[in-house]
Amino acid sequence: MTNGKQTYQRLLQLVLATELLWWLSVLVVFLLRDFDAGSLRLLHKNYLWFWLVIPVFLTVSWYHWYWKSKLYDTYAGKGRTRMLWVTFEPVKAFLHYFLLRSVLFFVVLAMAQPVLGSKTVKGSKRVLDLVICLDVSNSMNVQDMSGKNSRLKSAKNAIVQLLNQLKGERIAVIIFANDAFTQLPLTMDYGAAKLFIPDVESSMISDQGTNIGNALLEAQEQFKDEESGRAILVITDGEDHEQLWQEQLKELEKKNVLLAYLGLGTKAGGLIPNDPYEPGMGFKRENGKPVVSKLDVGGLKAMASASNSQLVVSSSAFPDVTSLAQSFSNAKNKTIKSMEFKVDKNYYHFPVFIAIACFIAYLFLPFIVNRKHS
After folding, report:
1. Does one domain contain both 215 and 349?
2. CA 374, CA 40: separation in Å to the nearest integer?
3. Which domain holds residue 307?
């Protein structure tokens, strides 16, 4: 009769030789192939550290084989009945181990997600291009907002709060007085926008006045994507004496542009400083009298009514823009853009299939081995 210790030693030698060949093959593959670059890659290489479970499993199996081989030697020759439960079958033990460790190996490989090449996938995305037209005329320096804040400072606060509530809209910022200029082209980089907004000042535009029509015309230059939703938010105190905005309304209607207004200031108004940073420079005067700038509520309502637009009026240093953000979100949800994406071809399912096959073979191994022995 074969000695259990000798059988155990041969089993251990077979397992160690198999593991050595296995891991040498894996090492050669990793040396020949850079999985961080090229068409064949592993998306999550860190998961390969879970392969360290296999040596732990080998150690546990080794101890089990050692214990069973000693048990086999202890009860060998003491009757067939007792031998039934201490039978030591090296082939069966090896296959049990090899199949289970292969399940672990290929499950971890599937978790690392091997990818090869890419494919084009069609999809859709809800998009909105939002252009913020910010009035930087001298009247926006009037400090009639709560806490003696200027209208321009309140406008900046409103834009930052609006950016905090947006979710994926592309934004652009246009500053205007009598002229209009694009200061921030369409972008989804809200962080860059937040860095830019505090630096906006009235001195950026020398040709003063309030020409909302020019701002609306400049805003339309940002709408180059035919499939995106479009919206314009005009932030102003409403003192537009040019009335050129009416010429732009039909064009905006043709392009399905959502128009909204945020009016800042008070009905009582305030004096326009000659220099917002030098109070000692006094205030703007006409015919020897100080010029008082008031929020033009009537003008704002006329503009909003003409285009059936939303109007929010505020005298707060931090205007509530929640309703405006909600309107833009609703507009985005109505616009679905067809898109094509390049995605990696993921082949994780191949190691998954191999792992399942090994596990099924492990479950049916006792029946296969016993049938051969019968």
Report:
1. no
2. 47
3. 128-334
Backbone angles phi, psi at 229, to 5 degrees: -70, 155
pLDDT in tens, the chain (374 residues): 445 566 777 888 888 899 999 999 988 888 877 666 666 788 888 999 999 999 999 899 888 888 877 776 676 555 554 444 445 577 788 888 899 999 999 999 999 988 887 776 665 566 788 999 999 998 899 998 998 899 999 999 999 999 999 888 889 999 998 889 999 999 888 888 898 899 899 888 877 878 888 899 999 999 887 778 889 999 998 876 566 777 788 888 888 889 999 999 998 889 988 877 777 777 788 777 888 888 889 889 988 998 889 999 999 999 999 999 999 888 877 665 555 667 678 888 999 999 999 999 988 877 766 554 44
Assess if residue 147 is contained within a domain. Answer: yes
The tokens for 204 are 């950026």
pTM of the model: 0.60
305 and 356 inside one domain: no
Token readout for 286 is 């006409």
> Who contacts 151 (Cβ-Cβ below 8 Å, separation ≥6)?
139, 140, 141, 142, 144, 145, 237, 264, 265
Q: Domain tally for the chain?
A: 2
- Ranges assigned E (strand) in the chain: 40-42, 114-126, 128-135, 170-176, 180-187, 229-236, 257-264, 270-271, 285-286, 289-290, 292-293, 310-314, 336-346
Task: Write the single-letter amino acid at 261.
Answer: Y
Q: Amino acid identity, residue 364?
A: F
Q: What is the CATH number of the domain that holds 324?
A: 3.40.50.410
Q: In 12-36, which positions are buried (b, 16+ CB within 10 angstroms) versus exposed (e)?
A: bebbeeebeeeeeeeeeeeeeeebe
Token duo for residue 118: 């890419």
Q: Token digits for 9?
A: 């030693």
Strand 180-187 versus strand 170-176 pairing type: antiparallel
| Three-class SS state of 101 | helix
